[in-house]
Amino acid sequence: MTTAPVSGSLPVYRWRLAPDGLATRRQLRAMELRPGGQDVAAELQRPRRRRGPLVAYLYRLDLAKPVRPMTPARWAALAKANTARRICPECRRDAGYVIPTSLGACVPCTDSN
User: Fold this and answer.
1) Which one of 15, 59, 80, 98 is most buried, counting C-beta atoms within 10 A?
2) 58, 44 Cβ separation under 8 angstroms
């Protein structure tokens, strides 16, 4: 992942006014692309009241690369990570849902405390 550059050295576009050929990370992902190590090409800013603007970084479509396919090992690692999020750290049982980090334990264990 590239670091956020200083906005003074980048072209800045207002919300919904970016030229064709540039896209955000989410837009790239929707097209099954990724930045592929390229630097940020421009910045998109959406003004807000009472706070600083929302900022999105734009990448060039012609330099974007296809998303890497999921391998069986990556699918297995993802399944293992999601299973770990369902295990209650107090009672060590599968809660049947992802345990909220705000609770830190399954609902029955949280209610009993």
Assistant:
1) 59
2) yes
* Residues 46 and 12: beta-carbon distance below 8 Å: no
Q: Which residue has the tokens 């060590």?
A: 92
CA 93 to chain CA mean position, Å? 29
Amino acid residing at 34: R
Q: Is 82 helix (H, G, I), strand (E, B) or coil?
A: helix
pLDDT on residue 5: 56
d(CA 45, CA 25): 15
pLDDT tens figures, 78-99: 999 999 999 999 999 999 999 9
Question: In the prediction, which pLDDT does 84 show?
Answer: 94
| Main-chain phi, psi angles of 72, to 5 degrees | -55, -35
Q: What is the pLDDT of residues 56-81, one digit of tens each?
A: 999 999 999 999 999 999 999 999 99
Question: Could you tell me which of 34, 33, 23 has the C-alpha nearest to residue 1?
Answer: 34
| Structure-block tokens of residue 74 | 């990556």
Amino acid at 26: R
